[in-house]
Here is the input.
Amino acid sequence: PYSKTHYTSIDPEEAEAVLGNLQPGSSVQAKVDGAASLVKLLKDKLEVVSYRASKQTGGPILHTERLTQGKPTKITIPKQFVGSVLRGELYGTRDGKSIPPQELGGILNATLANSVDKQKETGVHLKQMLFDIQQLGKKSVVDLPYSERMALLRKVIKSLPSKHFGLPEEATNPKDALKLFKRIREGQDPLTHEGIVIHPSVGKPMKSKFTEEHDVYVRGFFPGDGKHT
Here is the structure.
């Protein structure tokens, strides 16, 4: 029932001024180029779900077994965390570096069997980076300051397998925030070249990307040949 969070965009030049005057309670994180997703904690397992609905079923697109390469996710969730909904970014790495978004899309859009095969053949490891909590148990926590939501998330993640779930690197003061910003801009971060996300204590998050985005229009199409007919 949750929609994808849309951030306010700011230019990198403007971002430096914001970071230099970072307000207490704010968090600056690397913007990993992955697939936005939700994690629902159940009694003895969890599900990783896309924001998009399946065109075949109309139901949610599940990525759980793609994340675990088909292995069971049976875990014991503490009673107070059952029902929790977490926000995150599903991304892939190879040799410690993030894979391009088009390769990630191929893995996530493939059938489960093909997705697992692709991961094994190419040495890709999927991981869920959790950066927010929507509800704790059955209680909504969206009105809490971001620092308090992150504190809750740090408690919840202790119950999840570290092989598949992690938290983003955080900078919470101007010096560390500018250092993180510079590292990403200079291409020295292994997980992203894209930019940063600034989570204020309250209010809408901001993103600053080093590569501009553009809307494009499909002007036409042509039939495929052979197996692509």
